[in-house]
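Quick one: sequence plus zinc ion SMILES, need structure tokens.
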Amino acid sequence: MCLCTLDTDFVFHTMHKNVCRNEGSMEQVLEKMRDIIREGGNIVVLAGMNITYDMGLNGVNAEHLAYDVEQKYGYPNDEIVSSSFYTRRAPLFYKYYKEVILNIDDPQPSPIHYGIYKLQQCSKLSAVVTRSVYSIYDKVGCSNVIKLHGSVDENVCPRCKRLYDSHYIKHAKGIPVCEKCGIPLRPGFTLVGEMLDNGKISKASTIVENADILLVLGAGINSTLCRYMVKYYQGDKLLLLNDIEKVGDDRADYRAYGNLRDMFAQVMDF
Ligand SMILES: [Zn+2]
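Reply:
Sure thing.
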């Protein structure tokens, strides 16, 4: 199932009881979320792109740089990261890959990543599901991270299947090639127009279905990541923290908006 094709046929999930329990001041809502996390377990985190942007990374599509990218590269960013563009114009694709997607050489985890790791240390975290293609969650020690769109650290030689990390891509001259075979590497993330990994989608949806608490961080409920995953959630503890309110967010049982780092720190203060 390709998440990119869901725009037109997405139907807002209404099976869940539509009771708004998000009452009280934001402080009270954050306290309630903290209590739920402190007392609960089997948490699945849907980690949105705002966590990535908060670190200064651009992601694959770099929607926030649409104008700049088109000015500099002569093509819209969505087109550059498509499979057909990669096939036809690999040099420009890799220029974009190195400069825009890998804009920070050695990205460091933020307090949000450490907070998620703390959930794992408390045996409360079942999995992290994300569209992010960076290895930051692995860097802090999180296990069971499902990267639906692949990873910038898993570029592969189409012939011998050897993997190459983002450092190798970033510092290669021109198009990165396999050291052994001398042929261009395939990017480790899913390109626009390619199917997502069905095994990962299926694993993620099952984990979400069985979660006690679904914690959405840095994304709206109708974002590409959430709108597909949230419909599998059966529980009544869907918590949402994001910068601003988005259409469809009322599906969440508890939600708060503002500075993501600050709010998550409050929720994790137990
Ligand atoms: Zn090779």
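The first strand starts at residue 43 and ends at 47. The first helix runs from residue 26 to 39.
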